[in-house]
TrEMBL record:
<dbReference type="InterPro" id="IPR002678">
    <property type="entry name" value="DUF34/NIF3"/>
</dbReference>
<protein>
    <recommendedName>
        <fullName>GTP cyclohydrolase 1 type 2 homolog</fullName>
    </recommendedName>
</protein>
<dbReference type="InterPro" id="IPR036069">
    <property type="entry name" value="DUF34/NIF3_sf"/>
</dbReference>
<dbReference type="Pfam" id="PF01784">
    <property type="entry name" value="DUF34_NIF3"/>
</dbReference>
<dbReference type="InterPro" id="IPR017221">
    <property type="entry name" value="DUF34/NIF3_bac"/>
</dbReference>
<dbReference type="InterPro" id="IPR015867">
    <property type="entry name" value="N-reg_PII/ATP_PRibTrfase_C"/>
</dbReference>
<keyword id="KW-0479">Metal-binding</keyword>
<comment type="similarity">
    <text>Belongs to the GTP cyclohydrolase I type 2/NIF3 family.</text>
</comment>
Length: 364
């Protein structure tokens, strides 16, 4: 298997289009035409991980956090990022990062977090916005079924748990071709009135090129009339964080102890107790202070995340229990998920999880 084939598998697991705009995901180093000798999965692609990959004949490192996040003007080995990059390039090790592409996936980081806590009835906490577009086009009744099915095959028409969704209406279309036209119905220069079908379908914005290709390849008109709109609708199956319900409600002390055990947290910083029983919990792996208001609005009794600052705890306002369980801890099981996914979707490729502890935070 070449690296480019592995990239297809990784992008199926976590589509790069799902990543936040600020992020740096995908192939960071390496040549996609190189044969894969083995894969090392890690949280952070530090120099020690690269050394372990080389020692185990793994020429691909799949990491959660991108080791290259901002631009480098010099690579001299003066810090941990540059040393890791130099080590990878010297040893022909490709580095691939998933980060928020997996954060935003409905089966990704936050679903893994929920599963570790046994949360059920889960749904996305902060649905992704400005990600849905609508295509409107017009064709003859005879062409409508073929065209509609082609758009569905290209990925259009998916709404939540439903597929092949469209709206179709009949109307009267008019046109008059110039002397250079070659209309399918009528002749150049003739004013035509024809019964047409208006087809409307929604799609995820990253599919636009594929959708338009399907439109042009399956439409019978010489000139295809179509419109694309950006919608304000939220995408309910893509986004940051997740909300779920505990099987058995707990008081706040028992809940935090439960979380500490399940997530193997060394310690948990939390806001003042509200006195409420915890039934509904919101989670967001990694830095999640931006979603405190979302957790409160969603009616969560507790919100588990990381990297909360002093003043963030005031935002609880007695309405919710805020808990900072640690950045690494909140994403703890992500590497196992990636490794398992790769094992289930590749053949004759060694998949390893690093033994290097890349958590930079230590506790006394």
């Amino acid at each position: 298997m070449k690296i480019k084939a592995l990239l297809t598998i990784l992008e199926t697991m976590a589509p790069l289009a799902y990543a936040e705009d600020f992020d740096n995901v995908g192939l960071l180093t390496g040549n996609s035409n190189t044969e894969v000798s083995g894969v090392m999965v890690c949280h952070d692609a530090l120099e020690g991980v690269i050394n372990e990959a080389v020692a185990n004949k793994c020429n691909v490192v799949v990491c959660f956090h991108p080791i290259l996040f901002s631009g480098l003007k010099k690579i001299t080995g003066k810090n941990y990022v540059e040393r890791a990059i130099i080590k990878a390039i010297k040893n022909d090790v490709a580095i691939y990062a998933v980060h928020t592409a997996l954060d935003n996936h409905k089966q990704g980081v936050n679903k893994i977090f929920c599963n570790a806590l046994g949360l059920s009835n889960t749904k996305v906490l902060v649905p992704k916005q400005k990600f849905i577009r609508k295509l409107v086009t017009y064709t003859t009744p005879e062409n409508a079924t073929r065209l509609r099915n082609a758009l569905f095959d290209a990925g259009a028409g998916n709404i939540g748990n439903y597929e092949n969704c469209s709206f179709n209406s009949q109307g009267l279309g008019t046109y008059q071709g110039t002397q250079d036209s070659n209309p399918v119905v009528g002749a150049a220069g003739d004013f035509m009135e024809e019964n047409e079908i208006k087809i409307e379908v929604t799609f995820e914005r990253y599919l636009e090129g594929k959708i338009l290709k399907a439109l042009f390849n399956n439409h019978i008109y010489e000139e295809v009339a179509y419109e694309i709109y950006s919608l304000e609708n939220q995408h309910q199956n893509i986004g940051l964080g997740m909300l779920g319900e505990l099987e058995t409600p707990m008081d706040e002390t028992a809940f935090l102890q439960f979380v500490k055990e399940k997530m193997q947290a060394e310690g948990i910083r939390h806001s003042a107790f509200t006195g409420k029983v915890v039934k509904k919990a919101a989670v967001l792996g990694g830095s999640g202070s931006s979603a405190i208001k979302n957790a409160i609005a969603a009616g969560a009794d507790a919100y588990l995340t990381a990297d909360l600052k002093y003043h963030n705890f005031y935002e609880a306002e007695g309405k919710i229990l805020l808990a900072d369980i640690g950045h690494f801890e909140s994403e703890r099981y992500t590497t196992d998920y990636i490794a398992e996914y790769l094992k289930n979707n590749t053949e004759n490729i060694t998949i390893r999880v690093t033994t290097v502890n890349t958590n930079p935070v230590n506790y006394l």
